[in-house]
Amino acid sequence: LTIKLKSAIEIYQPKQIVLGGGVISNITIRREARKVASKFGLRVFVPYTQKLFTDNAAMVGVCAWYQAQRGDFIKNITTLDRQPNLSFTP
């Protein structure tokens, strides 16, 4: 994971790192991620309680909220409508 993190940092040049998901329950992974981030001068953010370490849906929701605020998905939220029969196959 640290190799992939280092590669992602080099490619995307983020301003900070946010760790999420069940994998961050592992203290060694958190420590190693912080080491990699510090080599690039980046801050690492981790949920304040272990109760949130396994809640990937919450992390995805937070990311989606920020993207929606930027208008990445739809420009006018009032025009948003559901598509109950949407197919996921080409």
TrEMBL record:
Q: Which InterPro entries match?
A: ATPase_NBD (IPR043129), Gcp-like_dom (IPR000905)
- Which residue intervals define the domain Gcp-like in the entry? 1-61
Reading the lineage from the top rank, the first entry is Bacteria
Which spans are transmembrane here? none
Note the Pfam families from the entry: TsaD
The region annotated as signal peptide is none
Specify the protein name: Gcp-like domain-containing protein
Q: Which species is this record about?
A: Candidatus Shapirobacteria bacterium CG_4_9_14_0_2_um_filter_39_11
